[in-house]
Amino acid sequence: MANWNDNTEQRQGFGSVPRAGDAVTRQETFDAGLRKHMLSIYNYMASGVLLTGIVALLTARSGLALTFASGPLMWIVALAPLAFVFAMSFGVNKFSKPTLQIMFWAFAIVMGLSLSTIFLVYTGESIAATFFATAGAFAGLSLFGYTTKKDLSGFGTFLVMGVIGLLIAMVINIFLQSSTLALAVSFLGVLIFAGLTAYDTQRLKREYQYLRGTEFAGKAIIMGALSLYLDFINMFLFLLRFMGSRE
C-alpha cells in the first residue's frame, strides 16, 4: 500500500540535478549576508567619521586646538593616527576583534584631535559645506563601486602609486612652498581618493564571498570601515583646500 504521507521519495537523491529553487535560495541567503556585511562596514565607518567630527569640534571650541597647531604636541597628534593605521594593518591577524574595535575608536578620537586645527584655518561654514559635499560624493562613488559590473581591480595598483606620488609631492612642497604645486596636489588628491572610494567598495564586496562564515569576517568589517574612513577623510581634506574659506 502506498504511503502518500511519506516525503522521502520527494527528497533530492544522489546524482540528481539540483533544483532551480535551491540555487535561488542560496543566492538570496548570500545577498542578505552581503548586505548585512556591507551595512556593518558603513555603520562603523560613519560612526568613526561622526566621532572624529565631534572630537574635532569640541577640541577647537575648547581652545586646545591651539596647542596642537605648533610645538612637540603637533607632531605627536599628527603622527599618532598613522601609527594606529600601521598597527591595525600589520597586526590584524594577531589582534582580536575587540582589540581592533578599541583601536578603531581610539584612532577616530586621535584623528579628531589632529583635525581640530582646521577650525583655526577655515571658517566653520566652509568646513560644513565641504563635509556635506564630500558625503554626497562619497555616497555616489561608493554606490557606483557596489553596483557596477565593471572590474575596478586593475585600477588598484595605479591608485596606490598615485597616493605614494601625492605623499612625495607634499613632502617636496614643504621646502618649495609652491602654490601651483599645492593646487595640483589637491586636485589629484580629490581624484585619487574618489577612485579609491569606488575601488575599495567593490573590493570589500568581492571579499565577502571568501570571508563569510569565517572567524576573520568580524575583523574584515573593522578593517573595511578603516579603508572607507581614510578614503572619506582624505577626500574631504583635499576638497577643503578648494572649497574652504580661510579665517
Task: Record keyword descriptors for this entry.
disordered N terminus, single chain, mainly alpha
**Number of distinct helices:** 7
User: For the CA atoms, what is the radius of gyration?
Assistant: 23 Å
Q: What share of the residues lie within helices?
A: over 70%
Oligomer: single chain
Order of helices and strands: HHHHHHH
What's the pLDDT, averaged over the residues? 88
What features would you describe in this structure?
There is one protein chain. The protein is mainly alpha-helical. 76% of the residues lie in helices and 0% in strands. The protein has seven helices and no strands.
Question: Helices, strands, pairings?
Answer:
Elements: H1 20-62, H2 72-90, H3 97-115, H4 124-147, H5 155-176, H6 179-211, H7 217-243
Helix pairs in contact: 1-3, 1-6, 1-7, 2-3, 3-7, 4-6, 4-7, 5-6, 6-7
What is this structure, in a nutshell?
The protein is 76% helix and 0% strand. It is mainly alpha-helical and 247 residues long. Mean pLDDT is 88; it is low at 1-14.
